[in-house]
Amino acid sequence: MQKLFDEVSSLDKRCYAEFALSEEILMEHAASGIAQYIRSRFSKNSRILLACGSANNGADGLACARLLHGDYRVSIIEVKEPKSEMAKLQSLRAKALQIPILDVNEELLTCDVLVDAVIGTGFEGEFNTELSFFMQKLNDIQAFKIACDVPSGLKSNGEVAKNCFVADVSLTMGALKKSMFLDEAKDVVGEIQVIDLGIPRRIYEQTTNWNLLDLDDMKLPHRTKKNSHKGSFGHLALACGNKSGASIMSAQAALRFGSGLVTLVGFEKIQIPHAIMYSHELPANATALSIGMGLGDEFSAFEMNRFLENTLPLVGDADIFHMPTLLHKILKRKDIVLTPHAKEFAALLKHTSLAEISIDELQKNRFKYVELFCQHFPHAVLLLKGANVIIGQKESFFINPHGTSVLAKGGSGDVLSGMIGALLAQGYTALEAAATASLAHTKSACGFRGASFSLTPDDLIRNLQNL
Questions:
Q1: Inter-axis angle of helices 85-96 and 23-41, to 10 degrees?
Q2: pLDDT tens digit string along 211-255?
Q3: Separation of alpha carbons 255 and 263, rounded Å
Q4: Which of 136, 155, 198, 400 is 20–30 Å from 236 (CA)?
Q5: How far is the C-alpha of 194 from the C-alpha of 185, rounded, in Å?
Q6: How does the average pLDDT of the chain come out, rounded?
Q7: Which residues pair with 77 in a beta bridge?
Q8: pLDDT of residue 450
């Protein structure tokens, strides 16, 4: 697990005040980190082009150019005249070494590596016409593209400006920035690596409420107890509604993910896989509930009350977010995991009177609204689905960055809900179940070896056996 920060300027200032490190020392380490990355991946004499802005992000690029000069064919584009003191100093040093500096209006050179050091963090709004045209020219260059700190055009809230630099890798300085993990940013940041700034990250970083999940945080339900039986591993009961296919997929995922018993609770005659049980009543030995997937109006109010007359942990998804009465009943429970996608989360915010916003507004402010919901419902675990999954409870928030577009297929969410339900049935806390199931869900998708458009829920469930 790695820490995420809204900004790191305060962490830099702490380095100056507590560790007697200067701005220049931190900059030299930043530049050295980029240079080392290039040296480790590109042979000497490769052509390196660095686009450098007028502030300290540009200064990082200028310093990197100096470190690579001599071993590589290095050229600099000074997008604007240096303005910060460090940019002026690094420009002076680069010119003293006679590193070629190109005019921003010149025809851009072909190169092997293109480094974007134009703006970095703190950007808001949109590029002006001239800079937008220049950034488009950078994006059109066929080269391996490196963003210095963050891609130029990535805003502090994670939104992406038109013609934002599209990186193959972002070498971010000191610590991870939360803005790099908004869904919209996923197409521009590329791979993300952190560059140390002269002290280890564990010292540079301080406390934060936001963290990035790693695959090592996935605690799979491996069975170590030898004296056991099917009842030892929980019993998940799923409400089976009008669209029974959704709950069947969810049930199959739960069975595959370790639940010893899985029962669909419904009132229609349907065909189900042989390993899944079916009942009109909630099993007396159920240890967790799952509700919402294809629910529709199958249950009467009396029948739904019977299903929910207990204190079992519960995962809720899909239809419940459009059923205000049922939703409010579920929100009164203690151990719950809610798994909306963006449209469903917008409905959840509306029905709880927290906000009435468009999906577009939500997607631009995912972090804000997850925090808002968790503040008002601290007992609930919220898992907001998306390109990067956000999980929150109380004042603790986590991002799973391993999502992939192969999951953009009907039924993928039903599989995830079944996996969470399986872990709840096996005794995981709500937060543990959401985090581990989310990581396993994305890892299963990433392990799919077919064409990117061809994954089905069955493939996803089948791949769980290989985790």
A1: 50
A2: 999 999 999 999 888 888 887 889 999 999 888 889 999 999 999
A3: 10
A4: 400
A5: 17
A6: 94
A7: 51, 102
A8: 87
DSSP 8-state secondary structure symbol assigned to residue 268: S
107 three-class SS: coil
pLDDT, tens digit, 9 for 90 and up, residues 321-354: 999 999 999 999 999 999 999 999 999 999 999 9
DSSP at 464: G
Amino acid at 390: I
The confidence band for 395, taking pLDDT boundaries of 50, 70 and 90, is very high
Q: Are 144 and 114 in contact (CB under 8 A)?
A: yes
| CB neighbours of residue 414 within 10 Å | 29
CA–CA separation, 155 and 296 (whole Å): 40
Would you state the structure tokens that stand for residue 413, as one six-digit string? Answer: 């969410």
Q: In Å, how far are 20, 131, 212, 454 from 460, measured between CA atoms?
A: 52, 44, 23, 11
Count of other CB atoms within 10 angstroms of residue 336: 21
How many residues in the chain?
467
Amino acid at site 126: E
- Backbone φ and ψ of 7, nearest 5°: -155, 160
pLDDT value, residue 270: 85
For the chain, what percent of residues have pLDDT higher than 70?
A: 100
For 201-241, give the DSSP string: HHHH----SEEE--GGG--------SS--GGGG-EEEEE--
Residue 72: CB partners within 8 Å, gap ≥ 6?
A: 38, 42, 44, 45, 46, 47, 48
Cα 433 from Cα 425, distance rounded (Å): 10
d(CA 152, CA 373): 31
Both tokens of residue 280?
């009109």
Q: What average pLDDT score do residues 349-375 get?
A: 96
Residue 374: C-alpha distances to residues 313, 316, 346 (Å)? 18, 16, 14
